[in-house]
Structures are given as structure tokens and as C-alpha cells.
Amino acid sequence: MSNYVLFTIIIAYLATLFFIAFIAEKNSKSKWVNNAIVYTLSLAVYCTAWTYYGSIGIAANSGIDFLPIYLGPVIAAPLWIVVLRKIIRISKQHKISSIADFISLRYGNHRFLGALVTIVCLMAIVPYISLQLKAVSETFQILSDDTSYVSTSVYDDSTFYIALLLAVFATFFGTQTTDASEKHKGIIVSVAFESIIKLTFFLFVGIYVTYILFDGTEDIYSKMAKSENFKSLTTIGGFEDGFNWLYTIMLSFMAIFLLPRQFQVSVVENVREKHLKGAIWMFPLYLLLFNVFVIFIAWAGNLTIGNADQAEYYALLLPLQNGNTFLSVLVFLGGFSAVISMVVVATLALSTMVSNNLVIPYGFLDYFVKGHPERNAKYIKNIRRISIFSIIIIAYAFYVNFSFELSLYSIGLMAFVIIAQLAPSFFIGLFWNRGSSKATVIGIIAGIGVVFYTLILPFSIQALTGSEDLVQNGLNNVAALKPHALFGIDFLSPPAHAFFWSLLVNVFCYVTFSVIIKGNYRERNYAEMYVDSRNYTDLQDGALVWKGEAYVAEIKKVLVKFLGEPRTERALNLFFRKYDLPLDTQMADARLINFSEKLLTGSIGSASAKILISSVVKEDEVSLVEVLKILEESKETIARNKLLREKSNELTKLTDQLKNANEELLEKDKQKDEFLDTVAHELKTPITGIRATTELLMDDEDDMPSEIKTQFLKNMLQDSDRLSRLIHNILDFEKLSRGRTQLNIKKHNIRKTIQKTIDSLYHLAEKKQVSVIHSNMSDFYAEYDEDRIVQVLTNLISNAIKFSSTKKGKIVVDYKYDKGFLEVTIKDNGKGIPDQDMPYIFDKFYQSKNQNIRKPEGSGLGLAICKQIVENHNGKIWAKNNQKSGVTFGFKLPFK
User: Fold this and answer.
1) Cα distance from N-terminal residue to C-terminal residue, the chain
2) CA 707/CA 713 separation, integer angstroms
3) What is the domain extent for residue 668?
4) 281 and 147, same structural domain?
5) pLDDT in tens, 706-763
6) What value, to the nearest 5°, has the Cα angle with vertex 334 and ends 332 and 339?
7) Same domain, 734 and 755
8) C-alpha angle with apex 742: 736 to 746, nearest 5 degrees?
9) What is the Cα–Cα distance from 813 to 753, expressed in whole angstroms?
10) Contact status, residue 497 vs residue 471, Cβ threshold 8 Å
11) How far apart are CA 825 and CA 776, in angstroms?
12) Nearest CA to 601 among 260, 262, 259, 355?
């Protein structure tokens, strides 16, 4: 393919990205820009050209050794909901815009520490960017069939122009505002789009190679199984390789948190914390999809091409050698997408760190203090633009001079080892408040020194001179000082070896010097805020323990220099309203100083913000005793607030309980009224019948036939009996409910008690032709008042007889022991109870209020009395409808 055609495709693709980023910036508040999917896809900036090409090279030559790079992030993902959420909250509260600001703020806005972290990131990422340029250059040459051409100057090198295009893209969308903590929606959406493109095209080539060039995965596997080195490609080579896997997993675990581009997309660009819930499963799924076909593409390349030197580009070479140029172009664009997203986000993050932690605090700060707000904003943007171009040009220079000596995999691992030197200060500092800034600086420098000797120096000497004397013999021919086999440990790969020793020295220095050298009061304050994850929302307002004198007007002047008059006025007005302070307040307190530093942090970094605010205040040194006293008072205040909250919660609970009790009393009172109304109604009915019958007998005593007179007298007798039963039941229920009835508890045989009850009801069952079955002949004993239990059984069995069908009714009475209780059940095949009435059947006068069937004889207090009797025995009564027909009543009595 012609160079010009390929370059035109690149220009068109970049124009598409420009358009997507532009539209996203215009619609920055829409849902399609701010959602968990876009956030997760932006995290896939982790998948660079190393993932696109380097993984295949490793799989082709070393088998499954490519997996640890992805296992680390997969293991880290579930921890995001705890660790990353904590980091995001702290960063948002303090307008943190880079990992350098995050670490330096943890250790009291330490200026040199911020600069040191920036230098470490530059050391790691500039070579990393160069490997992206290397991938673009080599794939460009393969696709244009120009591999034999070697450029003699920068001007005829296509890679140089591609690098400039990337710099223009990053500069245009990454430096539109001076506040680096603001969201870059355009870049993030374009990165998300590129993540879709690179995954889709990689899956395309995977499917093409596996199912078109070969007959599926089994075909590739069976053919590859015949090769001599097949076992080494499919297994971990014993104990020593296991250690290499472990260290590589640890490296990638740390990298997903510490790489500047990952911190940028996961923390700085996070819009909502809840997006993490989707990312913890979507991101591992993305990595899984990206690696499905890696091993098969690599093996297919080994089988058809078999050139180990070109293994990294099998995904491009396989379709190209089979005449599928279109698919090769797609693969190239997928790899180019991986390069663009990495370079743009990485340079954006690094330019912020360079301007805020190197250029501004170490040279331009005084100049800015004297400048005008608009001019200062312009200078900050220009510094970042120059930084972006400088970083990419330096990366290009590294690519030209060094990258040909190493593979994508080697450069990537080297970057990971360097960036891992930030791990102790980053991770331990989140959970251990004793860590100090001096210990952090010593640990990082010591760790970088070990990395330099064990990894960077051997590589540089070999690249520049071709000599391996240092690697083979060690420094001054001391075998114990061999860079790749320090102190006799020679079984680890060079990156794993450097990682082991550097992190060991780093952690040792960090912990030891943190114990020996105590941090100043400012460090201890921020440490408390970082570590105390439960209270940092409260702590962050008072994170600065400060003693001195400061004027609001002086602080305002500094803020105006960088934020402008309107924004400063708006911010200060919000501050005074939040803390209910007068708008004409003259003297500043610690809260305002802390607030002002946070306002400036996004524009010039936390270290420079601290320096500027400190320049306009008269601060007195706070002794350790005073710090401890203030912290103790803060803790006491927090404890008092916690106690007050607990008391408030208790009072709220008591209020709710009183409210419920009052409602219950009202309900009881209402029930009492209803009960009295129902009693009056029930008493009135038989009395009315008796009175009416009596009047008829008195008026027509002589003329009334004797048979009618007899019937009237029978009715009077029945009404009198009903009235007597009703009065008896009411009095009985009242005694039982108030506990005024003494139970005659003795040991009885339940079989005999049940049989006695059934015998007494024989005539009632016989009259309706209902069969009552009692077939259990076991003698079960329990202690109860037999007369009362007979009363319960009589009520339940008689109810079952009443509601059973004539001639078809069947009632089964049974009993058993069940977990310390004697359980008795009465089961019938009658009509059953409507489900909506089931909760009320044991209420007083239930039959008169809740039944939808014709009311039988009775007072309506029978089941309520049964419930009282059983509960007075410390038992339980219940009812449930049977599956087919009828209902089962049951009750339990405790037994010893």
C-alpha cells in the first residue's frame, strides 16, 4: 500500500477522533457522555500497542507468559470499590489533578516530593511512549511494504509526523482550561471510541485467523501440539517461572493504580463514583475479550510464518500474506487507536505534572504573582502545550536511539518497574498515618537507584556500546553485584529481579525512616485525613492545623491572579455562606487557608498553591504538643458529636415507640368501643326476640293455638340459652384476657381428653352425618388444665362440624410430639376460610364481622377464647387452609 494512501487514512481517522471529541465537548452533560460504559472503556487505555502486538509476541515465543500482565488488573478491579473510591473522594475534595499532587498532598504538600514523583513518571512513561511510536513506525512500514527503507533524517520519517499529529490532538483538547482537575469529556469519549475500535478489529483478525485461515481452535492446537517446544508454550516452567509470574502480576496490579494515564482516567476524569460498580466487572470482561484469540494468532503465526523476530506483528502479517489488505488496514487502525489513546492521555497527565510540580514551583511562581489573571492563564496553558510537545519529541528521540534494542514487552515492563517505586508511598500512605515525606523521598530515590543499576544501566550500556561485561561479571568483577543476579538471585527475569530488589529497599527505607523521622504537623494532619476513610468528609475542612495571622484581602489578591475576579468572588461568597460567616470578615482562619489552597491546586498544583498562600500569611510554627492537643480536641469533638448522634437516634427511636404506643392505645380504645357495640348488639338480639314473643303471648293468650304457643315458648327458651351462653362467654373471655383465671394444671393423657370431647359431641356429628376420626391410640402426656383444653377442643371440633357438608363431612383429629411441644390438629374437608379473612379469625366477634357466609349459632367469641386459653398455657394456636379443601386448626402445648 502506498505511503500516501496510508497517511491519508491516518489523517481521516484522526479527523474522526477530532469530530467525536468536539461533539462530546459540546454535549458534555448528556447521558451518552457521562455513563459507566464510557468510563470503563476509557480505563481500557491500559491496553496499548503492547497489548495489541506485544502480547502476541510473548505468546509466540514464551507461551502463556503474556497472561500475568492482565491478571493483576483483574485482581485489582474488585478492590476499586474500596480503594479507588477512597482515592476519588479525596481527589475531588482537594481538586487533585495528577498522581504527583495526590502523593505530595498526602505528605503535607511537599514540593520536592511532587517534583520527584513527576521525574519518576517521566522516566517511566517517556520510554513507554517511544514504544508506541516504535509500534506505529514498524506497522506502517510493514503495511506500506517499506521495511527495507531507513530514514536518514527527521523530515522524511513518517513516525515524526505522526508524533506531531498526536501532540496537536492532545494539546487542542487537553489545554482548553487552566484548571487541570476539570473533566476532559472530549478526550475521554474519543478514548472510549478507540477502545471499541481496537477491541473490535482485534476480534476480527482473531476470528479470521482461527476460523478462515484454520479450521478453528482445535485445528490450531492439534497442529501446534506437534512442535518440539509445545510443552514450554503451554505450561509454567516450574518454581522459578512461578516467581516471575508472581512479580509480573504484582507489577501490573500496581500499574493499574499508579500509571499517570490510569490515574487520569480512573480518578481525575471520574464523573460519578457509582460508575465504579459497573467498571469492576466490565473492565475484566474487556480484558478477557481482548485475550481470547491472542494464543491462537500467535500459534497460527508460528505455524505459517515462523519468524520469531516478527512475532509481535503476526496479527498484521497473517492477513497481509494471505492477500487480505483491507483486514490488515483494520488491524493497523486498531493498533494505531491503542497508540493514540495511550499517548494522548499520558502526555496530558504528564504535562499537568510537569507544569504544576516542576516548571511553576521551580521558576515561574514569582513571575505569576506579578502577572495579570488572563495573562497567567495563558502562560499556564502554554507551559502545558510546550510540555506535551516536549514529552513527545523526547519520546521520539528515545525511539530513534534506543527502542530498536528492545521489544515492546521489555520497554513496557521497564516502565512498570520504575512506576512501581511510587507504590509504598501511595498504598501504605493510604492506610498508615505514620509515613513521612522524608522517608518517602529516601525510599523512592533508593528504589530508583536499584532500578537504575539492575535494569536501566545494563540496557543503556548494551544499547550504546554493545558490551555485556557488567551483566556477565558485575561491578568491579564482583559476582554478587551482577545487575541481573544481585547477591546470587539469578533465576528471575531482569524486570522481576529489578522489581524485587528495588521494592524491598524502597519499603525498608520508607518504613524505617518513617518510624525514625516524624513528619511535621502539616503531614500528620493530611495523613489523618487520608487514613481515616470514614471521617475524611468531616476532617478535610480542618485538615490544616494552623496558627498565625492572615487577612482575607491578601488571600483574595492571590486567588484573583489565577482565578479572576468573578470566580474568586463567587468562591469566597460560597465559603462564607457555608460556614455562616459575615461577608466582610477581615481575618482568615485555617478553613479559609485550606479552601484557598484547594482552589489553586487545580491550576498550579498543590505544592505551588501551598507556597503562594504561605507567602501572604504570617504563620507561627506549631509544636508537636500543640498538634497533639488540637488533634485530641478534634477527636473529642468527633466523639461528642458521635455521642450526640447516638442520643439523637435513641430519642428518635423513643419518639417512634411513643407514637406507636399512642396509636396502639387509640386502636385499643377503638376496639373497645367496637367490642361494646358488638356486645350490645349480640345481647340485644335474643332479648328483643324474648320480648317480642312475650308480647305476642300476652296479647293473644286465649286465641293462640296451643302448637304455636309451644313453638313460641321453645323460641324463648333458645334465646334465653343463647343469652346465657353469650354472657358466660363474655365474662369468661374478660377473665382470660386479664389473667384472672386460675388454671388447674395437672398431668393428663391427651388421647383420653380428645376422646372425651368427641364423645360429648357425638350427637351433633350424628345429626349432621359427619364422621369424626380419631385413630391415634398413642398415650401422650402433658401438663394442662383439662377442662380448658376440652373447651378449646369442643369449640374447634364443633366449628368443623358446623362448616362441613352434610353426609360428606370428614374431620380428622390427631396429635404428636414436636420439639418440646404437644401438637394437636383438627382437619376438616369443609369450605375453608377466605385468605383475606385468615388474619382476623381469632379476633373478638370475628363471625359477626368478617365472615362472608351465613352466621351459625354462637357468640363469635369461641376462637378468641380458644386463643386466650392456649396462650395462658404458654402455647400457640393457628389455622391454615388445606391444599384441596377445608381448613386445619391446630395448637401446641409445652411438655416436659
Assistant:
1) 95
2) 10
3) 626-738
4) yes
5) 777 777 677 777 667 666 666 666 666 666 666 667 788 889 999 999 999 898 888 8
6) 90
7) no
8) 120
9) 12
10) no
11) 12
12) 355
